[in-house]
Amino acid sequence: MALRAALRKSCALTGLFCQLSSSRHGRVCASPVLVAQQRNSSTAQNIKLDFDQSTGVAVMHMQCPPVNALSLEFLTEICITVEKLEMDKSCRGLIITSSQPKVFSAGLDLLEMYETSTEHRGEFWRAVQEMWLKLYSSKLVTIAAINGSSPAGGCLMAMTCDYRIMADNPRYGIGLNETQLGMVAPFW
Ligand SMILES: CCCCC/C=C\C/C=C\CCC/C=C/C(=O)SCCNC(=O)CCNC(=O)[C@H](O)C(C)(C)COP(=O)(O)OP(=O)(O)OC[C@H]1O[C@@H](n2cnc3c(N)ncnc32)[C@H](O)[C@@H]1OP(=O)(O)O
């Protein structure tokens, strides 16, 4: 409840809620650094992180153009970001959203599975598993602010958060489409 109250006070979240409710109708990984300030912002390769120490709420903006496809590198970056936030005792909540227009995440990067080696695909799928397990088991309160389409792995990501809020726009789709793609998530 305290966190909810803090969340409500957070300008970042207020802005996000406004954005959501008013919208009706690719690399080497660099990780964000959290420094002890009242409010700080850091940018890694594919993630912009805003952290408000007064509320303990961090907002992770996915900015991996064009559609936040979850590549091995991007998945690794997400995991490192969550780990760093978890190590910061002043961080209690994490909001995940997208900086890309119309898309939260297009799911797994299909290019990681096309004409790549068995070893690479193994590493890739382990990173997928690590991402969702990290979010699902995180001690942070996690919220997916789904401000665009979120198929497949994007949906998985959202599902592993504690809460999901999705922009009310009929053009935005969410769900698992692996059957349509003829894809079976492998044994990990
Ligand atoms: C809580 C319990 C959890 C338990 C977990 C247990 C098991 C695990 C369960 C599930 C496993 C999940 C398995 C997931 C698999 C996947 O994610 S496979 C990927 C599936 N994704 C898709 O099919 C999405 C395809 N893309 C689209 O539908 C659209 O692109 C869009 C996202 C709706 C955006 O549309 P639009 O804005 O019109 O953009 P474009 O279509 O023009 O695309 C722009 C460029 O982006 C490229 N692109 C799109 N998607 C991907 C992708 N997934 N990977 C790589 N690249 C992608 C697209 O080709 C365009 O590129 P160019 O501009 O043509 O170069």
Summarize the structure.
The protein is α/β, with parallel strands linked by helices and 188 residues long. Helix content is 35%, strand content 20%. Strand 1 and strand 2 form a beta hairpin.
Describe the protein:
The chain has 188 residues and is an alpha/beta fold. It has a single domain (47-181), classed as 2-enoyl-CoA Hydratase, Chain A, domain 1 (Alpha-Beta Complex), CATH 3.90.226.10. 35% of the residues lie in helices and 20% in strands. The chain has 6 helices and 8 strands. It has helices spanning 2-9, 11-21, 72-87, 118-136, 153-159, 178-181, and strands at 39-43, 47-52, 57-62, 93-98, 141-146, 150-151, 163-166, 174-175. The strands form 2 sheets. The chain has a 6-stranded mixed sheet, with helices on both faces. Strands 6-8 form a two-stranded parallel sheet. Helix 4 (118-136) links the parallel strand 4 and strand 5. Helix 3 (72-87) packs parallel to helix 4 (118-136) and helix 4 (118-136) packs parallel to helix 5. The protein is globular, with a radius of gyration of 16 Å. The protein starts with a helix and ends in a 7-residue tail after the last helix. Residues 1-37 have low confidence and may be disordered. Ligand L6WJOLX4 is lined by residues 66-67, 69, 102-103, 106-111, 132, 136, 149, 151-153, 156, 159-160, 177-178, 181, 183, 185. One of its GO terms (molecular function) is delta(3)-delta(2)-enoyl-CoA isomerase activity. Homotrimer. It is an enzyme of class 5 (isomerase). It catalyses: (3Z)-hexenoyl-CoA = (2E)-hexenoyl-CoA; (3Z)-decenoyl-CoA = (2E)-decenoyl-CoA; (3Z)-dodecenoyl-CoA = (2E)-dodecenoyl-CoA; a (3E)-enoyl-CoA = a 4-saturated (2E)-enoyl-CoA. It holds the Pfam family ECH_1.
